[in-house]
Amino acid sequence: MNDRLMTMQLPLRKGKQGTLISAYAPTMTNSKDVKNTFYEELDALLSSVHRTDNLILLGDFNARVGCDATAWEGVIGKNGVGKCNSNSLLLLKTCAAHDLLITNMVFRLPTRNRTSWMHPRSKHWHLIDYFIIRRRDRQDVKVTKAMCGADCWMDHRLIVSKMKLRIMPKRRPQGYKALKRINVSKLKNSCIAENLAEDLENELADLRIEDDAEKDWEQFCNTVHTAASKGLGPSTHRRQDWFDENDAEIQALLTEKHRLHRAYQNDPSSAAKKTAFINARRAVQNRPRKMRDL
Known about the structure:
By secondary structure, the protein is an alpha+beta fold. It is built from six helices and nine strands; from the N terminus they run E-E-H-E-H-E-E-E-E-E-E-H-H-H-H. The protein has a five-stranded mixed sheet, covered by helices on one side. It has a two-stranded antiparallel sheet with strand order 5-6. The chain has a two-stranded antiparallel ribbon with strand order 8-9.
């Protein structure tokens, strides 16, 4: 839609539609006009979504909505955190106008799973990233929480929400049969590659070109695939993942990193715990690169 709003639609079962809206709201330092313009555009976008659609609004709203569930009943739950800021009123009014529920505060979780952003100066954790749905779809959300152990460094914690959605499976065209994979690794043998090239040249020499481009393309693909299947054979198995045999070692590094991260969060003033966590995080990030080099 613009630099701050993006939409995506998912086909659901029984003819229903799912609409996802990703938002990045203005920060506290933006002018009042910029904030009002953003929420006017968001309000118009929400109004354009059909009432029967499943609606999911998610993103960084740079707003702390606090924990006053009685004042905003039906919009936030009883498990909020912190106090409100000036941006919160715009978000709460928009949610109330469209019967939306902020699911982050519905579930009773530890504080570390209810906060998503650390203030760079005060080092306090706040909740400014939200997963918002229609109030009527409350029973479809199983949990919404912040992920404390994401294996990357950023000033926001990732928000995960588990929701019950029945997405329509992608259907293949009727009468279409998927072609089997070819063992292309045999092409490393120069003799096999030369034989295949000769066979293809003979097969394509007898190919009859008609006026229908789709039929000509289908005939060409089938001819090439048939010749390649005879010369190379089907693919037997996929290449083994490079990390399979090192899974135990990597898991041990991740466990130690998570333990040191929790210790540093419980005592953020400790320089030793911070250094230990940074070293463990660097070891986790560098380990896959070293194994790939091997």
